[in-house]
Design a protein that fits this description.
Elements lengths: L7 H11 L4 E17 L2 E21 L2 E10 L6 H13 L35 H14 L3 E17 L4 E16 L6 E8 L7 H14 L3 E2 L4 E7 L1 H13 L3 H5 L24 E4 L33 E5 L2 E2 L6 H7 L10 E4 L7 H6 L7 E14 L4 E14 L2 E6 L1 E6 L1 H7 L2 E2 L3 E3 L11 E3 L2 E12 L3
Helix pairs in contact: 3-4
Length: about 475
């Protein structure tokens, strides 16, 4: 191998050759991004970036057990490999036995494209989107609206090689669009977001039209006090709540009595019905349009991921099946401790089982006159209050609307809410069709989600907020 080579698969192979540890895992992440930003109906910036991160996991066997050392560095070339490998080995030798130690995943059939060049994005990903955005600017300007926002596309090629012979590779495209429309005096604001793999399914004109309607709704302002209201949660808000629930679904933590999924007196709530509707919360690395890595990629150990599990196959998993708690996330180590099935986390989340013919607009139209109903746009600043109940607090943002007699009749003030997503699933009275959606709060970390709108008869708006 040439000392000057810089291809990711060759970097992985060279790092493995340099290893003197008992076991070694090398992860190369090749990342490229392209982005556009705009304000006041005009593009402001655009750019393209590229970078590499290399992670080396060294394992060292000892009389007391196996220790691990993990070191990650950016922009690593072949000439910088040996110091990185030695640093990981030194970290392992200086550490005590790893609690999550397991034999490294055995080698098997490798990815056929392991030696291929990394996939890359470029400004070409916006070839159709950018002109359509320009047309949306013109329509917004003519309609007295100002558009603000950004579009970002990222492509990450991940190469995983191990001393046991694993050679796996996954290409992950990830695109996000966030669009804000504001009135010229900034008194009214509306937001729309979309996740995409390639921007071919993004229609700026349709999003602008939706935002124009919402700004129109905000022409009438109604002040409401805090309280419990019938509330329509759009897919983006449902995603933000259930992603946090997903992150909190550790099998080990549940068995040890620390989470909402713990059974009082010991054990877990697996098998218990927790949803009022027969909804299924699931993940599948091969879900069309939401594809994610079909094997574990763990750059560190902690919670419910383990560097020893790198390369472990990831499969379709039902977390909640027809309203019943079915699986909690585990590593091989935590599965062994708890007696639960091995269930690694997957890089997407889907809630389905609602009415496939019922859109959010249909749910608005189906709202009767028994009392005020709120239609949310999105949530933000979500924080955990109580892990034992998974009580979350947060704020509404960019439009809370009042629904009466099946029509939106105005905008109301923002609120702070206090709710548990597990409780919400237990109280939801209606679910619409499942749609791909972008979570507003967690979009920097988790974008591959598909959710229905939910109707909750008594959503807890705990106080009035001055947020926008």
């Amino acid at each position: 191998m040439s000392a000057g080579t810089n291809k990711p698969h060759e970097i992985v192979e060279r790092a493995l050759e340099l290893s003197r540890a008992d076991g070694c895992v090398v992860i190369a992440d090749e990342r490229s991004t392209a982005n556009l930003r705009w304000a006041g109906n005009a593009l402001t910036t655009n750019g393209v970036t590229r970078g590499r991160t290399l992670t080396v996991v060294a394992t060292v066997d000892g009389q007391q057990g196996t220790a691990s050392g993990v070191v990650s560095r950016s922009a690593v070339t072949v000439d910088e490999l040996e110091p990185l490998v030695r640093a990981a080995e030194a970290a392992a030798r200086g550490a005590g036995p790893a609690e999550d130690a397991q034999p490294l995943v055995p080698g098997g059939p490798g990815s056929p494209d392991f030696a291929d060049a990394p996939a890359e994005t470029s400004s070409a990903v916006f070839a159709d989107f950018a002109p359509a955005l320009g047309e949306a600017f013109a329509r917004a300007r003519a309609g007295g609206r100002e558009l603000y926002g950004f579009a970002n596309h990222e492509m990450t090629s991940t190469y995983v090689g191990t001393s046991t012979g694993l050679r796996l590779r996954h290409d992950q495209p990830n695109g996000t669009l966030e669009l804000n429309a504001k009135s010229p005096d900034r008194s009214r604001s509306a937001w729309a977001g979309q996740a995409t793999r390639d921007f071919k399914d993004v229609d700026p004109a349709a999003l602008d039209a939706e935002l124009a309607v919402r700004l129109g709704w905000a022409g009438r302002r109604v002040e409401l006090p805090a309280g419990r209201y019938e509330t329509l949660l759009p897919p983006t808000a449902v995603a933000d709540l259930l992603i946090y629930q997903y992150w909190s679904a550790s099998g080990r933590d549940a068995v040890e009595g620390r989470t909402v999924f713990s059974e009082p007196g010991g054990g877990t709530r697996l098998g218990e019905r927790i949803g009022a509707l027969p909804l299924t919360l699931r993940s599948d690395p091969h879900e069309p349009g939401l594809e994610s890595a079909p094997f574990v990629v763990a750059h560190s150990s902690g919670g419910d991921q383990s560097v020893f599990d790198n390369g472990l196959p990831v499969t379709a998993t039902d977390w909640i099946r027809a309203g019943e708690l079915h699986r909690l996330t585990t590593t091989r180590h935590s599965a062994g401790l708890t007696g639960l099935p091995v269930a690694p986390a997957v890089g997407n989340l889907i809630l389905d089982g609602g009415d496939p013919d019922r859109s959010l607009a249909d749910m608005v139209a189906g709202t009767d006159h028994r009392g005020p109903c709120l239609l949310l746009t999105c949530l933000w600043y979500i924080r955990e209050v109580d892990p034992a109940t998974l009580l979350l607090t947060g704020l509404t943002r960019d439009g809370v609307y009042l629904v009466e007699h099946g029509e939106v009749v105005g905008e109301v003030n923002n609120f702070r809410f206090n709710e548990s997503p597990v409780d919400l699933l237990g109280r939801a009275s209606e679910a619409g069709r499942t749609e791909k959606t972008l979570p507003r709060e967690w979009g920097d970390w988790f974008t591959r989600a598909a959710m229905p709108a939910l109707r909750v008869p008594d959503f807890n708006m705990s106080s009035v907020s001055q947020g926008v």
